[in-house]
Specification:
Strand content: 5-15%
Number of domains: 1
Strand order of the largest sheet: 1-4-2-3
Shape: globular
Distance between the termini: 8 Å
Number of helices: 3
Number of strands: 4
Radius of gyration: 14 Å
Helix content: 25-40%
Length: about 130
């Protein structure tokens, strides 16, 4: 599994975990609503956002989510997408999901196009 911005990855395996997709996003992506942030996402500061999103993730089974994401885009590898461009801002919920998978499942979910020193890039696949 990988992560990327809508603006940096337009290939196979795309899964939107955003509340909505940018205008003119190329077709062919899937949507996984359970990982989209709640309706509070634009009304709180980053610290509160992280708290609320952690609460949201705590209601999900990470192993089940992992499998559902792979099943959603099979035979491709899932690439979780949201709006943020990490070259501008690292406050991004797709990276919170990646951290959640690492803590919960012991798997690493790297960001496409970033050096391993920024985001760890080893670990098992599916």
């Amino acid at each position: 599994m990988l992560t990327a911005s809508f603006f940096t990855h337009t290939g196979v395996g795309r899964v939107s975990i955003a509340r909505w997709t940018p205008k003119n996003t190329p077709p062919g992506f899937k949507v996984y609503r359970a990982l989209a942030p709640g309706d509070w996402f634009k009304s709180v500061d980053w610290d509160r956002y992280c708290e609320l999103y952690a609460e949201q993730l705590s209601r999900l089974d990470p192993a089940r989510v992992w499998e559902e994401l792979y099943d959603l885009v099979a035979p491709h590898e899932p690439v979780l997408l949201c709006w943020e461009r990490l070259d501008r801002d690292d406050q991004c919920h797709r990276r919170l999901v990646a951290d959640w998978f690492e803590r919960s499942l012991g798997v690493v979910v790297p960001e496409i196009g970033h050096q391993p020193s920024l985001f760890t890039s080893s670990g098992p696949g599916r």
